[in-house]
TrEMBL record:
InterPro entries recorded: ABC3_permease_C, MacB_PCD, Macrolide_Exporter_MacB
Cellular localisation: Cell membrane
Name of protein: ABC transporter permease
Major location category of this protein: membrane
Length: 418
């Protein structure tokens, strides 16, 4: 198999008609190139989407109250209601498998500036939260500290602002920690600045929100024990999607909502949505392989056709070799090696060009900055090894039919051919 004469013959056969060999090799190289590019693009999309979920507790359910759509226990249809702090404790006691239950209140933007700092002002969303919310959101404290339970217990008038608000209300080199901002007429001390973990941030609302203790928010803005909405995260190994029915049932019983009322409580199951995205990644990879392999098959068919032509051109030579007693398997092996060699070399060229293209795309992305939902397209070593395996199989398939035809040539008939 590693005979010097055999490899010399392979090179002579493939170089005897360079244009034909290059044209045939292009189909295989193009197929591998398309496969590599499609897989890299799929990986780039996957990286971008995963980056959007970076730091977010994906096993989380967000829940809020709506109007009832059914009368129940003497209470009318269309009734408005709010969650209470007691519902939070009720959920914690009655629903096993939960890691975090965060009650939350919020204040939206008003007509005028709701946040003032000196002569500067702006309209921002303000949240009343518990410290655990930082484990459920894609944020981290870049300076100072986040909220703690002492803030909650003592109802401290402290806030954590986003880095975007710092840019809006403060000078570049100005110290922020320890300063005060006025939120809807009440002064709060800034104790921390947060940033988003996602590198794809930068939207209109990016890092332009304010967090204060839940108890402080309730007292300052007369929310009593009302809860606007909750963020509920399951323990690792548990599915919040399997627990949401129990959670909803518990809250409905507490708020006297009809068990069959599907509109009274709104919720968003992040875990369910994340699983759908995970399924999308698998579908994208399947499509990439499917399209790439189809293009590769067309190239393999081209190699097979060319090998058939080569066999026809070498019919007399094969007949002479058979007449001199060469083993049919030796001839068959020669044809298969020619096919595999041509296929592998063509595919390696496709892999090299694909890698260069991916490198160029990443260089462009690095120069222009992050592109939304697309990040670091790449292929792993495993993908390259799979591509090499496909090339070997493709080479065998391309040479199988010509090789079988070659060993079926009878020496007498081959010698008669002029």
């Amino acid at each position: 198999m590693f005979s010097k004469d055999r490899w010399k013959e392979i090179m002579e056969v493939l170089s005897s008609n360079v244009l034909r060999t290059v044209a045939t090799a292009f189909g295989v190289g193009w197929g591998i190139f398309i496969l590599i590019i499609l897989l890299a693009a799929g990986k780039g999309l996957e990286n971008g989407i995963r980056q959007e979920f970076n730091g977010v507790a994906t096993n989380t359910l967000f829940m809020w109250s709506e109007k009832t759509s059914m009368a129940y226990q003497g209470l009318p249809e269309g009734r408005e209601f709010s969650f209470k702090l007691e519902d939070v404790d009720l959920i914690r006691r009655n629903v096993p498998g939960l890691r975090i239950v965060s009650p939350r209140n919020s204040m939206g933007r008003s007509d005028g500036d709701n946040v003032i700092r000196g002569t500067e002002g702006g309209q921002y969303r303000v949240f009343g939260d518990y410290p655990e919310i930082i484990e459920q959101n894609s944020i981290f404290t870049s300076k100072g500290r986040f909220l703690n339970h002492k803030d909650i217990n003592e109802k401290r008038k402290v806030v954590v602002i986003g880095n975007g608000i710092r840019k809006d209300l403060y000078d570049t080199d100005e110290e922020v920690i320890g300063t005060y901002v006025k939120i809807s007429g009440i002064n709060f001390m800034v104790v921390g600045i947060y940033k988003e973990k996602s590198s794809n941030g930068g939207g209109e609302d990016s890092e332009r929100q304010i967090y204060m203790p839940f108890t402080t928010f309730s007292q300052a803005y007369n929310r009593a024990d009302n809860v606007g909405w909750m963020a509920i995260t399951a323990e690792d190994g548990k599915s919040i999607s399997q627990l949401n029915k129990t959670i909803l049932k518990t809250v409905k019983e507490s708020r006297k909502v009809h068990p069959d009322d599907e509109r009274a409580i709104g919720y968003f199951d992040l875990y369910e949505q994340y699983n759908r995205v995970e399924s999308l990644f698998g579908a994208i990879s399947f499509i990439a392989y499917f399209v790439g392999v189809l293009v590769l098959i067309s190239g393999v068919i081209g190699v097979s056709n060319i090998m058939l032509i080569v066999i026809k051109e070498r019919t007399k030579e094969i007949g002479i070799r058979r007449a001199l007693g060469e083993n049919p398997w030796s001839i068959k092996l020669q044809i298969l090696m020619e096919s595999i060699f041509l296929t592998i070399v063509s595919g390696m060229v496709g892999i090299i060009f694909g890698s260069f293209t991916i490198y160029s795309i990443n260089a462009v992305l690095d120069s222009v900055g992050p592109v939304n939902m697309f990040l670091n397209p790449s292929v792993s070593l495993g993908v390259v090894l799979i591509a090499m395996g496909i090339l070997v199989i493709a080479g065998l398939l391309a040479g199988f039919i010509p090789a079988n035809k070659a060993i079926k040539i009878r020496p007498i008939e081959a010698l008669r051919i002029e």
